[in-house]
Amino acid sequence: MEIIAYGVLANEKPLLQEAFDQAFGSRHELRCLEPFLNRDTAPTAAGHQVVLSSVNDTLDAEVLHDLAKGGTQMIAQRATGYNNIDLAAAQEHRLTVARVSYYSPHSVAEFAWALALAVNRRIVRAVHRTREFDFRLDGLMGRDLHGRVVGVVGTGKIGTVFTRIAHGFGMRLLGWDIAPNPDCLALGMEYVPRERLFAESDLVSLHVPLVPDTYHLVDAKALALMKKEALLINSSRGGLVDTDALLTALRAGHLSGVGLDVYEEEAGVFFLDKSLEVMTDERLARLMTFPNVLVTSHQAYFTRDAVGQIAETTVRNIEDYFADRTSENTLVHPGLG
Fold first, then answer.
1. Is residue 259 in some structural domain?
2. Which of these, 232, 266, 15, lies nearest to 112 by C-alpha position?
3. Where do transmembrane segments lie in this chain (predicted)?
4. Chain-wide mean pLDDT for the chain?
5. Annotated catalytic, 237?
6. Which of 12, 200, 264, 266 is catalytic?
């Protein structure tokens, strides 16, 4: 049987193929495609029982209908997030849907700190200058993080690793989540209401999933509460931040720096080469004009360790499907619900 994968990155392909070969040998073949799965590419999945999707694929009701009509029975999402999948439509079409519920939390937490440090110390601007032999320090002044307040929004696996690193910097720890995490409490974290976290933090880092309750969690009200010199880091999901509100705050000189590894309209842009095209997304283009904003292309998870774990878990999800088993990774199964 041939299994088809969409949105496969060049560095991801050998790790996915290795995990696939180890699990299935010659029993199944893997076909990796660079294009994302959407309404235009869905017909190419016809005849494939199992489809591997990526985080920026579009799996709405129309796409799922076309997949089911073409014979697809199982979708394995190569990511933790699944806000791009219409689960109700998947249930209606009796599709099995699984995700990767866990991979190295260090990959994302470490990258979030890389963004925070780069924004705070103006690293990218400094490198651009020195490449042109401009060695002035004007405009490059940052702040010590030691002794300052970090607000961690979401203290799950990734948030906890981020908190441990903050503890190593000697920062005061504030947290917000639906329930306190004992590991974070042991580090001295104080759980506070969201409004207080935004108001008191010198650095706010987002580590919650994108669900209806967290959509635009950082809106105009939240941004107004934040200190003028605060840093905002988002390495989770773009929809957590209201981009229009963020642009308004930045134009007003609010926030010392912003690091974004995700963007709410990143689908169709991130992971692609748009350098020879006109950027039609005006909000993204405007974000790029601010010298205190860094935007990266959803790469926080992109380490060999994490991508390898994602590939291995994806293969296990396929094995579970063939054995008619469910696991903590199963989102939709015809026998459930």
1. yes
2. 232
3. none
4. 96
5. yes
6. 266
The CA distance from 74 to 240, in Å, is: 29
Selected catalytic residue, list 237, 264, 312, 333? 237
pTM: 0.91
Find the domain containing 263 and state its range.
105-295
- Say whether 78 is catalytic: no
Which residue from 164, 209, 212 is spatially nearest to 188, judged by alpha carbons? 164
CA distance 81 to 36: 16
Candidates 93, 99, 122, 298; catalytic one: 298
How far is the C-alpha of 83 from the C-alpha of 61, rounded, in Å?
A: 13
What is the spatial distance between Cα 199 and Cα 201, in angstroms, rounded to a whole number? 6
Q: Please, where are the H alpha helices in the chain?
A: 13-24, 61-69, 87-92, 105-120, 123-131, 157-168, 182-186, 194-200, 220-225, 243-251, 282-288, 304-322
Give me the mean pLDDT over the 308-334 stretch: 96
Q: Is there a single domain that holds both residue 70 and residue 138?
A: no
Residues 99 and 109 in one domain: no
Average pLDDT of the segment spanning 138-145: 96
Q: How many domains does one find in the chain?
A: 2
Claim to verify: residue 79 and residue 113 sit in the same structural domain: no
In CATH, what number is assigned to the domain containing residue 41?
3.40.50.720
- 65 is annotated as an active-site residue: no
Alpha carbons 337 and 335: distance in angstroms, whole number? 7
